[in-house]
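tool_log.txt
---
The assistant was asked to compare two proteins side by side. It first ran the structure predictor on the initial sequence, then on the second. Raw inputs and outputs are pasted verbatim so the downstream comparison step can read them without reformatting.
(1)
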Amino acid sequence: MPTISRIHAREVLDSRGDPTVEVEIHCSSGAMGRAIVPAGASTGRAEARELRDGDPARYDGRGVLAAVANVNDQIAPALLGFDPCRQSELDQRLCQLDGTPDKSRLGANALLGVSLAAAHAAAAAGGLPLFRHLNDLWRQAGTTGGAPADATFDKDMAPRLPMPMTNMISGGLHAGGNLDFQDFLIMPVGAVSYSVGLEWIVRIHRRLGRLLTEAGFEGRLVGDEGGYGPRLPDNRQAAAFLVTAIEAAGLRPLDDVTIALDVASSHFFDGSHYRLRAEGPVRPDSDPVRLDSDQLIDRLQALVDEFPITLIEDGLAEDDWDGWRRLTSRLGGRVRLVGDDLLATNPDRVRRAIESGVANSVLVKLNQIGTLSETLQTMRLARTAGYGCIVSARSGETEDVTIADLAVATAAEFIKIGSIQRSERLAKYNRLLAIEEHLATCAD
């Protein structure tokens, strides 16, 4: 049985140049695991709390030396001699050490770094690819955390490649507010394999850059997640460019490739209304349009009617539960309605959504809940209720590829990594190519 002999954390940088936490776990057997914690720009109030130093003289207050110290000085001594293969018990111990509902004392970034590094160490100790070890934990997740047993669900737990859900045009907080909606993405739903879908995505991305440039918009510079960041007149124009790019790539909108929207509406919700810029050719200084929930639902439905949109993420704000019920009633039978800020990878919020008939899919972000075990339990709860699961990166990413293995291990339908530019994104796409090859070799 491997036991933890050393845990060490350090401060490193993410894709935006912000500090984040990296953790190494060494075992008595010589096995070692390492993980780096991502960070979001578009964060919801229900997320677990990362710990930042707040010292304006250092990294503009964004340093994480306190979280690093919490790993090295408080968490490490408490876990020495622990078996990293006992992930659920290890994560429970982490939560007990923190002692707060939102992991704000030690920091969710401190806890998650240790949680993920333990999984890497356990996989290394067992001589397994990480996705195989995570699949074992995924199977065990049905026996913990209150997720109901489901015999039909249990029959389909083998690792499987997800389809990519790829950022093409960025807006919102990911691209300086150039568009109201945060992301315009494509999904290669007609591709026969992950690798074929990835080639389609690259082809469409290149055509889109040319189309934007030819139309006089920015077709080279990119946002936080690698998507183009053109200053288009409105959200509808962004969707129209995607349709044209899909066709220019020799593919069929809807049959081969569909569109997804990340509205991220919490960020333009003022507590009673949604403040969006006016659509069409209006003056740059025009006052925002104030829409109530039903008016925004009308606008989203109009986009679904016009374009091959099959997924909408955070169509309404994180606490607009009544609006979400009406949105689900109106569009839930036509498109995937994904809760990100709404659900925050939190089992309590997912249960409320299930009981209320709200949304039909969950965006899964490890650092929203703060430990691997809680993430798996949330996914199991969602899947047994018939909700889809989409594993997602954050805007502040690193070379860590854990989410690629997680998506395969849990047979997630889609993975949302970002665009196919920037190496912190490509590391995950390339990891999935390696896993695809591994699974094909094993099948032979």
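(2)
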Amino acid sequence: MSKTIVFIPSRLASTRCPNKPLADINGKSMILRIYENVKNMTDYDVCVAAGDPEIVEEIVKNGGEAILTDPTLPSGSDRIYAALQKIDPDGTKYDRAVSFQGDAINVNPNAITALVELQEKTGADVTTPVKIMDEKDYYQPNFVKVAAGFKEGEDEARALYFSRSLIPFDRDADNKREIYDHVGIYVYKVESLKKFISSPVGILEKREMLEQLRVMELGMSIYVKLLKEIKLIKEAPADVDTPEELELCRKYIK
């Protein structure tokens, strides 16, 4: 029986919304709300992989588990691997590690279970969710598109590429097909995460600034799960990138 741990990578440095993990949302910090969402809605071990002692203090004083990691680590994946090495140094406790975004205040943690089941079914190195993209976001580079060939009636497929550009191209302009929007939750096999972290930055990864492309350049497999709905509360944003989104969360998340 495989053992899974969910890490929530979090750090205070943010250019658009400074100190957002500790931002108050109607009586609780954002990072504590995310931790409690995952803890209460899944059966997995949960730990915050923090880049700052203030985040560790916030979680621990409220009865949670947090690990302090180097604040200069370049990505969430690096942060969760550093935390995993501290919490399971001999690599015998866990064989699957999940990265659940540290600003995903309104993302349904049940997505994790669907991704774990997909990984068990396919043997993929990594599984991650997608949703149908709003047409208004097609040409926005901050929205990452996924090329994956979903067979009719199925919601699981192997990812073929991730891009900030609109992919795949539809040669038949009259036959508009769905475009898939990547959601930043990753379920890694531990050995796949280790291989990924220990490998140099990929050529395409550097060009698009998308770390999942390193996984693909290394020849590892990524399978995606198409989710109809990822939010807990329909009206609130799924995650927080800006002060405006933080205010919307305060309006709807009680």
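---
observation on (2): The longest strand covers residues 156-163. The two ends are 37 Å apart (CA to CA).
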